[in-house]
Design a protein that fits this description.
It is built from eight helices and no strands. Helix 4 runs antiparallel to helix 7 and helix 7 packs antiparallel against helix 8.
Length: 204
């Protein structure tokens, strides 16, 4: 008897999203019954992330971390709602990706305000590296897709960054968390560059 093939995932994010469907899809069906549109959920997610940034700016790091994880949970519902309701669209995907960048910027801006007020110079430099790296993670995927490669690989994509940051804030390990994020965000960038290079060598 032939064994069933195990589905392969390009990234940890894809795996986690697949496993989370047992939770997200029932909630998405409820949102569909309430008449919610996926783009509305996307905008709500943005507002929650801005709220998390404001909480961090006020110096409430534990609550900021908790609120961040709640906001990221809402972020995962727009795609599930789009699939369940059949309301998937190119604009919806574009809006989701665009607002994700703004959400991440709002979070780190709030954290930067707190760091500046505390005079934590090293942490400020680390946040800069993380912000630039996260932009490059997103850009390398977008540019790869522009030349024909589905580039989702990487150890620290947005979902992982949110989880690591949220957990680090809750337990109070700000500097170690930022160091880990700064290093592995750039590792992800180089993983994607190498992936596209390798794929281009297969199909010149």
């Amino acid at each position: 008897m032939e064994r069933a093939k195990t589905k392969q995932y390009d990234s940890l994010t894809d795996y986690l999203r697949a496993q989370a469907t047992v939770i997200t899809h029932p909630i998405a069906r409820l949102l569909e019954k309430l008449g919610m549109h996926p783009n509305t959920v996307t905008i709500i997610g943005l507002l929650l992330n801005i709220g998390a940034g404001a909480i961090l700016a006020a110096g409430h790091l534990v609550w900021g971390g908790i609120f961040l994880l709640i906001a990221s949970s809402v972020d995962s519902l727009d795609g599930a709602l789009a699939r369940v309701s059949g309301a998937k669209s190119r604009f919806g995907a574009f809006l989701d990706s665009t607002l994700d960048r703004i959400s991440e910027g709002a979070l780190f801006f709030g954290l930067l305000i707190w760091l500046v007020n505390r005079g934590l110079t090293l942490e400020i430099y680390l946040v800069y590296l993380i912000i630039l790296g996260s932009v490059m993670v997103s850009y390398t995927r977008a540019r790869a897709e522009g030349v024909g490669y589905d580039c989702k690989v990487g150890i620290l994509t947005r979902l992982e960054r949110v989880v690591v940051l949220g957990a680090g804030l809750i337990i109070g390990w700000v500097r170690p968390t930022l160091i880990v994020m700064a290093v592995f965000t750039w590792v992800t960038v180089f993983q994607r560059v190498f992936y596209v290079y390798r794929e281009s060598r297969k199909n010149p």
